[in-house]
Amino acid sequence: MATIRKLKSGKFEAQVRRKGYAPVSRTFHKKSDAEEWARHTEVKADRGELHTPVKVLAQYTVKDVLERYRDEITVKKRSADTETYILDAFMREPIARLLLTQITPAHFSTYRDKRLKDVKAGTVNRELSIIKHAFDIAEREWDIPLRNNPLGKIKKMKVNNARSRRVSAEEYDLLCEAAQDSRNPYALLLIRFAIATGMRRGEILKLRWDDIDCEARTLHIPVTKNGHARTIPLSGEALAVLDEIQGMEDRDDVLAFPLSDNAAKLVWQRLLRRTGIEDLHFHDLRHEAISRFFEYGLSVPEVALISGHRDFRMLFRYTHLKAEDVAAKLNA
Q1: What is the reported pTM?
Q2: Is 286 marked active-site?
Q3: 148-184: per-residue pLDDT in tens?
Q4: What residues does each domain of the chain span?
Q5: Is the domain defined by 169-330 classed in CATH 1.10.443.10?
Q6: What's the pLDDT tens digit per position in 5-16?
Q7: Which of the residues 39, 228, 283, 320 is marked catalytic?
Q8: Which of 40, 163, 225, 320 is an active site residue?
Q9: Which residue intervals of 156-219 are DSSP H helices?
């Protein structure tokens, strides 16, 4: 806020204060000039154009901001484990040791280009998006007087996430054979259940016995990627997998698949190494499942009920329609 006071000399002193910034003041012969300067300075403050006090920013490093963000913000998210892993890895980078007085967009551009040599654009976008939000929170809620978010002008990389990878019959047999020999008793069951239900890995690993109604042949998924809970029908194969798990002597009383996300990733990576299968993600099992639902003759709304897609257009890439098949229907 701005204050104006008359000095003993007869002049007028205008002062503008903003939280996180050092007060700025100036003296004028006329009160009207002081008022005009105060209004102009307040506008500059609102736009973030006031000089950022170096002493305040010099108290913090990039790591300081990210540690607080991890401990106060990340822990409240559903993706806390993954985001914590990303932040911890970034905080080991040299860029994290820079003071807030030193950090610039150029530092993040250099980091981005370096990371693109090791990971895909989508991964880099996710990492920088988390860090950008951390700086936003620091400025808005923690009174750290950042003039500009150093990631504010960093453009996201173009990403093409669309995949149409199907699992061939030969690949499926190889996976099942390798999973059968795995030391993890859930390896084969995880693959079979993923293709039988079209569920995401995270959804499967969070599946609770209380969410399964074997009598009604349904399964409830309370927490999903898009935030909308859904209840899906269970096929005979899916029920058979659950029945096998229930027959285990050491089965978990709460979770149907008592594996950590990291353990499931390691199981999948070992299976790929053993089979020699290339360019196959666990998420491709979901693509395979949804494609099979269409091949079974299910309609788009029926498949959407199972997959959880809110936009039917997203399902079109799973249909794999062939002109000869449509021609056969037209001439049936």
Answers
A1: 0.61
A2: yes
A3: 788 888 888 777 666 678 888 899 999 999 999 999 9
A4: 2-51, 62-140, 169-330
A5: yes
A6: 888 888 889 888
A7: 283
A8: 225
A9: 169-180, 187-197, 201-205
